[in-house]
């Protein structure tokens, strides 16, 4: 027969104090003196008491849980961001509930609904590549659940956001390719639904125009966010009648595919083709050749997002509605072998 957990009532009986005193002591309430709190905690440990977080959340209308929804956890940017989120959340007394959309709009909707109905105190969300409608997110805001978007955001969602300066980062990446002598620069990008893809493409085009290059549709190709898709995209570009001598990839995963695809075709990198990524995934350092990239502070983006969300959650009601803000982190250029032309 399973043993039933120790209750607050039993703790109170053992200590000969009221149930209310035990409850306040377990929550570190200032009305309880240090000696009483110490006695309660020691007795709780001795008897093996564990708080019922769900019941506590129902009574206080607060769970101390934040929901996190990302496209996937097997990409380094997202795993680093989650590490930053969890470190700050734990430091501030919160637990993190993590969901993946798998780049699916329908799964994103389902997970948002699950998180909202799980009494999370707030949500951190990065959009899937399929997300082209936002009613499910606006509904979260309408329910009064604090929502903050990070990295993959959209202006139609009325909430605060934390992201990378994708436009200027892309400009810097393309200007680097121009500086090493590239004359025809291609761009391998992703979903047109995502602001992040559009901003990096816009930065690519702005850099070309600034330096007097034409923007050619034939040099811009869209694909999935996989290594194999990057390989195939590079092959298509290099087998065209007038192939590029440089390529700026939306993300490092595509740059890894591009370098691999170039190897299959016997193309010398960087002499015949310079390759530039975005993100600074660890794999880019260990590829042969190593891949130049724009480094994103993914851990800092996650930790900042968590801290800002918890600050919003803990605002007093008499402070009014929180102001909508946008925090932008600047990426930095890392030059490696894939663009190091002599």
What does this structure look like?
With 342 residues, this protein is an alpha/beta fold. It has 3 domains: 8-51, 434 Repressor (Amino-terminal Domain) (Orthogonal Bundle), CATH 1.10.260.40; 64-164 and 298-330, Rossmann fold (3-Layer(aba) Sandwich), CATH 3.40.50; 166-296 and 333-339, Response regulator (Rossmann fold). Helices cover 44% and strands 15% of the residues. The protein is built from 13 helices and 12 strands. It has helices at 8-15, 19-26, 34-47, 53-60, 76-91, 105-117, 135-142, 166-179, 195-210, 227-238, 252-264, 283-286, 298-313, and strands spanning 65-70, 95-100, 122-125, 147-150, 160-164, 185-189, 220-222, 246-249, 274-276, 293-295, 326-329, 332-334. It has a 6-stranded parallel beta sheet with strand order 2-1-3-4-5-11, sandwiched between helices. A 4-stranded parallel beta sheet has the order 7-6-8-9, sandwiched between helices. Strand 8, helix 11 and strand 9 form a beta-alpha-beta unit. The longest helix has 16 residues, at 76-91.
Catalogue the unreliable spans: none
CATH fold-level assignment of the largest domain: Rossmann fold
**Domains (count):** 3
Large-scale geometry: elongated
Radius of gyration: 25 Å
Q: Structural class given helices, strands, pairing?
A: alpha/beta
The CATH class of the largest domain is: Alpha Beta
**Based on DSSP secondary structure assignment, what is the total number of beta strands?**
12
- Global mean pLDDT: 91
CATH fourth-tier homologous superfamily of the largest domain: Response regulator
The ordered string of helix (H) and strand (E) elements is HHHHEHEHEHEEHEHEHEHEHEHEE
- Biggest sheet architecture: 6 strands, parallel
Q: State the helix count.
A: 13
Spatial arrangement of strands, main beta sheet: 2-1-3-4-5-11
CATH architecture of the largest domain: 3-Layer(aba) Sandwich
> N-to-C terminal Cα separation, in Å?
75 Å
| Percent range of helical residues | 40-55%
């Amino acid at each position: 027969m399973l043993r039933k957990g120790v209750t607050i009532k039993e703790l109170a009986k053992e200590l000969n104090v009221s149930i209310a005193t035990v409850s306040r002591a377990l929550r570190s309430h200032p009305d309880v003196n240090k000696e009483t709190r110490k006695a309660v905690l020691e007795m709780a440990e001795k008897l093996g008491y564990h708080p019922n977080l769900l019941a506590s959340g129902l009574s206080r209308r607060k769970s101390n849980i934040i929901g996190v929804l990302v496209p996937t956890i097997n990409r380094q940017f997202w795993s680093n961001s989650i590490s930053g989120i969890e470190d700050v959340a734990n430091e501030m007394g919160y637990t993190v509930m993590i969901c993946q959309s798998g780049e699916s709009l329908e799964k994103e909707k389902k997970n948002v609904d699950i998180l909202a109905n799980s009494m999370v105190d707030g949500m951190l969300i990065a959009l899937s590549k399929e997300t082209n409608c936002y009613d499910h997110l606006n509904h979260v805001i309408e329910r009064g659940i604090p929502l903050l978007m990070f990295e993959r955001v959209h202006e139609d969602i009325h909430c605060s956001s934390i992201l990378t300066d994708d436009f200027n980062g892309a400009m810097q990446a393309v200007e680097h390719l121009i500086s090493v002598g590239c004359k025809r620069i291609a761009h391998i990008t992703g979903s047109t639904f995502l602001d992040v893809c559009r901003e990096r493409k816009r930065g690519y085009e702005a850099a070309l125009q600034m330096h007097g290059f034409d923007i050619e549709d034939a040099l811009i190709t869209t694909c999935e966010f996989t290594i194999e898709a990057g390989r195939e995209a590079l092959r298509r570009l290099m087998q065209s009648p007038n192939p590029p001598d440089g390529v700026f990839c939306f993300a490092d995963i595509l740059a890894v595919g591009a370098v691999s695809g170039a190897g299959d075709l016997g193309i010398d990198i960087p002499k015949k083709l310079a390759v530039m990524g975005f993100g600074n995934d660890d794999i880019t350092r260990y590829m042969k050749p190593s891949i130049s990239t724009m480094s994103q502070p993914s851990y800092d983006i996650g930790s900042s997002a968590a801290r800002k969300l918890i600050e919003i959650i803990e605002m007093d009601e008499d402070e009014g509605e929180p102001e909508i803000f946008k925090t932008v982190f600047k990426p930095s250029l890392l030059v490696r072998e894939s663009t190091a032309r002599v």
